[in-house]
Amino acid sequence: MRKSFICSLCHNGILGGGLYLDRHAVTYKTQKLTVNEKYRNLVLPLHEIEEITWKWMPFPLAVFSMKNGEEYKIIIFNKWRFARCYREYRNID
């Protein structure tokens, strides 16, 4: 089952969108056409995520560190629910 979250990607500013989590990937989607196509439908496969660390701004900021060295910063407005769902999906495999 896919879970959805309100979020903003931090890349050359704050880009509002939706975050979707299922047993295969974390997917960020936005409808903003001025954004690089890579970030309009950003898919982060769970098996490629090395770790997620959290920082606090006025909102919780998740830093996704990928195995290939890339990092993605996403403000997730329901940190506790996301963290719980993420743990559940990581424990399935």
Structural write-up:
Helices cover 19% and strands 51% of the residues. The chain contains 2 helices and 7 strands. The chain has helices spanning 37-40, 79-92; strands spanning 3-10, 14-21, 25-29, 41-45, 49-56, 60-66, 71-76. The mean pLDDT is 92.
Low-confidence stretches: none
Task: Estimate the global geometry from the Cα principal axes.
Answer: globular
Amount of beta strand: over 45%
Provide the gyration radius in Å. Answer: 12 Å
Oligomer: single chain
Distance between the termini: 15 Å
Largest sheet features? 7 strands, antiparallel
Mean pLDDT: 92
Number of strands: 7
Task: Bin the helical content.
Answer: 10-25%
Provide the structure class.
alpha+beta
Strand order of the largest sheet: 4-3-2-1-7-6-5
Q: What sequence of helices (H) and strands (E) makes up the elements?
A: EEEHEEEEH
Individual helix count: 2
Keywords:
single chain, 93 residues, 2 helices, globular, alpha+beta, seven-stranded antiparallel β-sheet
